[in-house]
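Purpose: get a first structural picture of the assembly so the mutagenesis plan has something to point at.
Setup: three entries, given in the order below. No constraints added.
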Amino acid sequence: MTDDPLWSIFVDACLINNFVLAYFLGICPFLGVSGKLETATRMGGAVVFVMLVSSACAYGIERVLTAIDAPYLRLISFIVVIASAVQLVEMFVRKWSPGLFRALGIFLPLITTNCAILGVALFQTNRGYDLLQSLVFALGAGAGFTLALGLMAGLRERLALAEVPDVVQGTAMTLLLAGILSISFMGFAGLGG
Amino acid sequence: MYRAMVGVAVLCGVLIVSVFEVTRPTIERNEARALRDAVLEVLPGARSSRAFVWSAGGDGFHAYRPDGEEGEMVYAGYDDAGVLVGVAVEAVGMGYQDRIRLIYGYSAVPERIVGLRVLESRETPGLGDRIEKDPAFLQNFVDLDVSLAPGGKDLAHPVEAVKHGQKDRPWQVDGITGATVSSDALASIVARSASKWLPRIRPQVADFSSKGDT
Amino acid sequence: MTEPSAPTGEDLWRGVWRDNPVFVQALGMCPVLAVSNTALNALAMGLATSFVLCMSNAVVSLLRSFIPRQVRIATYILIIATFVTVVDYLIRAVSLDLHRALGAFISLIVVNCLILGRAEAFASRHPVGPSILDGLGNGLGFSLALFALGAVREIVGSGRLFGVPLFHEGYQGWVVMILPSGGFFTLAAWLLVFNRVRAFRARAVPRAQEVPS
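Result (structure tokens, whole complex):
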């Protein structure tokens, strides 16, 4: 349990230490999904939800593991829970919003190996956040992820119409864009106080 | 089908537990030694140290025993004659890039921080990580005023970082140019920790007077 | 289709250049970039990942006839997570400082798509020998790529390599290289270099074949 105020945790996870642009977590979907703004925002929404669920479960698991003194099971338990959370979300989405399910397609299962989700669970454990702090952290991380994804998608939609040198096409260009976005986000440093 | 998975799970479990048990003594030894070195470093003149637990019941500090009470810990340092040099406190907080974990030494007479060492940080190498390595910056913490306000419930003057070269009060910390956020973070981590622990430690200084060995 | 039973050199070297995990397959960048801002960190992460890759390839290959198809991904992840936990404790025992520098990113090796990818694409279909070599090769390629990243970032960003200053006292590094943005830029730069070299070689081959009369 740390003394950081909740709003500071949120701002830190969303802007100052954005999971994608500062920690490089969640890059695979970042590079793959961020072609269209609409898909990107939907992916972001799914990620936020999965992060919240995983964060709560991770907190619970950590409490149990500390009680039975088996810290070495942490990684395996987290992975299993995250995978299950993704399955749950997939079933949920399929039932309640078939349109969204079709739109997301392959991306939902891809979230399982999304480093950002595991990152949330691991970071919140390392920093000793309590349950509320963990959830706020997860919310901030998901919001930041969606923000970065959305910005990337918007930029790429524009660039699709521009003339780009052959050499830079594809992944290299996305990376360069991400680098510039990352620099701009550095302007938020110190916001948390 | 499930038999296979369970079989694999059992194998994995065995492997993890064995590696854990094999490495545990080494890890604990390393961590204990690192902590002891850090305590002796932030309390100049100390030759031995002892861990104390802050009693949740509120009756001061008790010497730590492995089977005894658990709780937040501080570390007292003693010189060759067994006289108390000061108390070292660990503190943690967010830096620019990630958590910063540090330990500082407090001497009740006079009320000063006498040393500080950063234990864990992932600040920007070459910039923010100068809070760990820059001797001029660390010098800030050799004689830092942390006297308590009358009433003894809080610091008289909160520790704060100022722009490099503008330090003119004994409770201020000269920041590092180009590493403002890291310097500010460090100062505020120290300030928060000091205002939590020093009101507990100063009145209970007698609790630490029993000579210790590590 | 008969499986090649003897491990070959091809299994090893393929992963280093032709199918370099980072630059060609574009796999496994994710969890590692954040701690690739110095050569030492990058190398350590590369080696840790290689260890996990080799061991999990070996075990997946050993158990490949026992793992049922429907749960194979879950089982692979379980095996990978085991070795990641193992390497985490090993690093902690060997060097506390290194462990503190790398932190949670060691655990994040488990979501490195490279490892799962090799387990699924290779280790599950080949015997142990070639699988280990494949793991070594990909691990080597991965470590080299990471080292390239970390070294450039450290040299350009702070004028040092492995903490040793390379330039004169007053060298002002490009700070941006050490920050996360630098990671993106450096990776993009290496990708460009890699692609150019490959394109160049691809063009050079037909010309070389024309030369003999």
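The first helix of chain C runs from residue 9 to 13.
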